[in-house]
Amino acid sequence: MKNCLFTATLILAIATSCSKSSINEGVSLNLSQQRKEQITNISYNLHFNIPVQKSDSITGTADITFDLQKKTPIILDFRASNHMVTEVSIHEQSINSTLENGHIIIPAKHLSVGTNSVRVKFTSNDGSLNRSEEFLYTLLVPDRASTVFPCFDQPDLKATFKLSLTIPAQWTAISNGKVDSENSISSKEKQLTFKQTEPISTYLFAFAAGKFERVSNTIIGREFTAYHRETDASKLKRNLPIIFNLHAQSLQWLEDYTGIPYPFGKLDFILIPGFQYSGMEHPGAIFYRDSRLLLDENPTENQQLRQANLIAHEVAHQWFGNLVTMRWFNDVWLKEVFAGYMADLIVNPQYPNINHGLSFLLSHFPSAYSVDRTAGANPIVQDLENMLNAGSLYGDIIYHKAPIMMQQLVLLMGKEQFRLGVKEYLKTYTLGNANWDELISILDSYTDQNLAGWSKTWTQVQGRPAVGYSFDNESKTITFTNFNSSPFPPMWIDICSPNGNSIAVWLEQLPTTISVVDIYDEALPIIANSSGLGYGYFAPDSLTLSFLFSQKTQLCNPITRASNHLSWFEMFLDQRINTDIYVDYLLNCLEVETESQIQSYLLGTLSTVFWRFVNHDKRDHLAARLEKVLWTLFEMKLPVDQKRAVFATLSSVFTTDQSFSKLYSAWGLGQIGGITLSESERTSLAYELMIRKPELYHTIAFGEVERINNPDRIAQFDFTLGAVSPNPSHRIEFFEKLKNPANRKPEPWVTEALRWLHHPLRSDFSIRFIEPSLTLLPEIQRTGDIFFPKSWLDATLWGHSTPEAKKVVNDWIEANPYLSPNLKMKLIQSADMLYRANGDLGSVRQ
After folding, report:
1. Is residue 478 within 8 Å of 518, Cβ to Cβ?
2. What whole-number distance in Å separates Cα of residue 72 and Cα of residue 95?
3. 3-class secondary structure for 491-531?
4. Which of 52, 259, 364, 809 minimizes the number of CB atoms within 10 Å of its CB?
5. 3-state class (DSSP) for residue 3
């Protein structure tokens, strides 16, 4: 009875809003719930006319069929201007409709209980069509489908899609469905028609069209097709067979693990220059940024692992996200955590020489802490009242804290019980929608643990724990206490002695005391979180810390070493370790560390500390020693991947003339120390050299552009030069152009260029761009894609560490009290290092 009353109230509210013409922007939670109750069996038959000229509009027709449970007004989502709706008809009869705040409102009098057919002729917005002169592609996650065509733009109203495209005759196209027919219209145009899809959410509908090369391959009896714009034949020859195989292997593994055959017919993919994400999992048509998969010559094993992991991640989404989709975008993390977990299971056995436990630790924990330690931290599950704000839910908590929670969940349940629960979940909700609570309800039946209670602290509370521990020699116990106010999620950790003996400990609440008599060694301290499973940093008592600092990397277990390194960095950021002592520690560790993954982490940490926490005077004093350590390391007989990591750090932190001479020579020759620089390494080095020696800007720029062999990458280089220019007026002009949304694409180009614009060596000048960059933030969220606001902020603030920059941020926050909470949180997250560099521990007025 309560549900019926709720539905009736919503229908009345919508009918009233229609008559008063007062519907709000976006898809509210209330609107989505009402439509879910009233609308079923949706299908879209879409046609788009794509002209060759980017300046010409894209027009289309949407035939939308659906069943209506009750006669009620219908609200279609279409974020466009009035003139962009040419005609609305019902059952082939034109009707009067209203377009308001991104919605086409169809009065109830034109509709009937049962099947209804609505046709809308329209002009699309360009924003989510990502148009360039020679190609375009859609990117509709989370709520951008309604900028391209009229639809019910919410994840739980799944529908079938049938698409046709009129495109220039020289172009090709890809979409979710397989090409059903191709017909020539004239010498300048042709029409492609694609087969109807299985039911999918609107954010997963996709197409791309343009001047792409098409390559097919059949593996394990299944045909895959790749689309690309790469002009380097050797790069394609090296990578494409591997890419095809990785897709086939991932698909076959997931079919075996889930017991469910691949549900979407074909599985093709397209490699796009400047694509906003690493990948996007559209059913039947995965989109990738080309540089993520087309690796340079002699890639390291870690680069190959990342390539394989990305492919496995996007293929895993075909089951986790596409086959079963979250009901509402507050659970968007659910599809991401499953895709990440499955990707690790798929690819890790293929790379037995990599320490995958270490890789998981260093890939996820630092990134999760980068948000969870800040005053702008958010929980894994966030509130969402309107789909307009869904994009702001994405970030490192979803992609990095959630996998850590999943690791703990599997430890709690056991791998096989977890798998059984997951298989039931997929079969129960196949081609439908489900939320986290529904998954947990199923998993609960496969374990004696109270998963519902356990998950609340992990998913609904934010904050990185800071745990202190101390050893009592007499009682042979270790006591854990909570250093901060962040709730402590129940978790498994390991405790060990440096001699290698360890015990597993379940920590449910703090403070707590644990007996360690089984691993006690009177000559050695006890080390907490030795396996790196525990979330948060674990700070030892002063005696233990002194011992561990003096040992450097002599602890034999690399995961234990890495776990300690993560804790020391968090302690440094919380001002528990002095900057000079910490820099000495990093340099000393680098001199003896042999594990490539740990070495890479130490190099990145050293770069962060050097630029953000060492002031200008001390930086000059430190530079000679730092560069000497790095050059000595680079000149050692290291594996190629370690040499490249050292070289990348050297290129990014050098300030002395001696290093400039060596690196300028390396850029000119294209090689150094036995390694041949890849195009991307050489181009990044060119930017670094231009910033250090502005008088050589033109020489280096002309020399570099001559050696880039792909027109898309030449265009990116030309774009970035405006940010690197030694002429201040050119840099101002570059930033002014970014105020026009049309000039903020491709977004990866913009964020990379902004990082050069705000380089620490130019921060005195670029501080002037912080305030206008923050002022653009709401518009950037409205016009950009989901990761763009945070990447815009990160690129803007990374090079600044002065009190003056901090004041600019604080003053702007104070002057903009009505900034959306989610955007404010993103800003505080990005400003965290700036605040900490000024002694504020990341705090800011909330």
Report:
1. no
2. 16
3. EEEEEECCCCCEEEEEECCCCEEEECHHHCCCCCCCEECCC
4. 259
5. helix
The two structure tokens encoding residue 529:
């979180």
Residue 13 structure tokens? 């509210």
Q: Count of CB atoms within 10 A of residue 452's CB?
A: 12
> How far apart, in whole angstroms, are the C-alpha atoms of residue 212 and residue 174?
10
Query: What is residue 543's predicted lDDT score, i.e. its pLDDT?
Result: 87
Closest CA to 824 of 183, 439, 375: 375
Beta-carbon-side half-sphere exposure of residue 413 (alpha carbons within 13 Å)? 26
* Residues 304-333 pLDDT 10s: 999 999 999 999 999 999 999 999 999 999
Q: Note whether 655 and 688 are within 8 A (CB).
A: no
* Cβ 421 vs Cβ 414: under 8 Å: no
Is 558 within 8 Å of 536 (Cβ atoms)?
A: no
Cα torsion angle, 723, 725, 728, 729, sign: negative
What percent of the chain is predicted at pLDDT more than 90? 86
How far does the chain reach from its first CA to its final CA, in angstroms? Answer: 42
Instruction: Report the pLDDT value the prediction gives residue 551, as an integer from 0 to 100.
Output: 63
Bridge partners, 213 (sequence order): 228
The reply to whether omega before 241 is within 30° of 0 (cis) is no
Phi first, then psi, for residue 89 (nearest 5°) are -135, 150
Kindly provide the b/e burial profile for residues 227-239, where b requires at least 16 CB atoms within 10 angstroms of the residue's own CB: bbbbebeebbebb
Which single residue is written with the structure tokens 């050692």?
636
Give the CA diameter of the chain: 90
With beta carbons less than 8 A apart as the criterion, state whether 290 and 273 touch: yes
Q: Give me the pLDDT at residue 615, please.
A: 86
Query: CA–CA separation, 395 vs 401, rounded Å?
Result: 10
Place of tokens 């940024």: 289
| Continuous segment of H or E residues that includes residue 739 | none
Q: Are 832 and 825 in contact (CB under 8 A)?
A: no
Which residues touch 763 (CB under 8 Å, ≥6 apart)? 799, 800, 801, 802, 805
CB 104 within 8 A of CB 113: no
Q: Which helix (H) or strand (E) covers residue 320, if one does?
A: none
- Residue 545: how many other CB atoms lie within 10 Å: 18
Q: In this model, does residue 373 exceed pLDDT 80?
A: yes
Residue 604: left if φ>0, alpha if ψ -120 to 50, beta else—which one? alpha
Per DSSP (E only), the strands in 220-302 are 222-228, 268-272, 279-280, 285-289
- Return left, alpha or beta for 784; rule: phi > 0 is left, psi -120 to 50 is alpha, else beta: beta
φ and ψ at residue 87, rounded to 5 degrees: -160, 145
**Range 630-639 average pLDDT:** 93
Where helices occur in 29-114 by DSSP H, the ranges are 29-38
Cis bond upstream, residue 403 (ω within 30): no
Contact 187, 165 (CB under 8 A): no
Is the per-residue pLDDT at 552 higher than 80?
no
Element housing 781 (H / E): helix 777-783
DSSP state of 266: -
What is the C-alpha separation between 755 and 17, in angstroms, rounded?
Answer: 46
* Residues 6+ positions from 580 with CB-CB distance below 8 Å: none
DSSP label at 538? Answer: E
Provide the token pair at 733.
């002009």
Type of residue found at 540 = P
Angle 629-632-635 from CA coordinates, rounded to 5°: 150
Find how far residue 703's CA is from the centre of its chain: 34
Rg (CA), the chain: 28
Q: Of 30-39, 462-471, 566-575, 834-843, which range is least confident?
A: 834-843
CB 242 within 8 A of CB 286: no
DSSP 285: E
Tell which residue, 660, 722, 717, has the closest CA to residue 688.
660
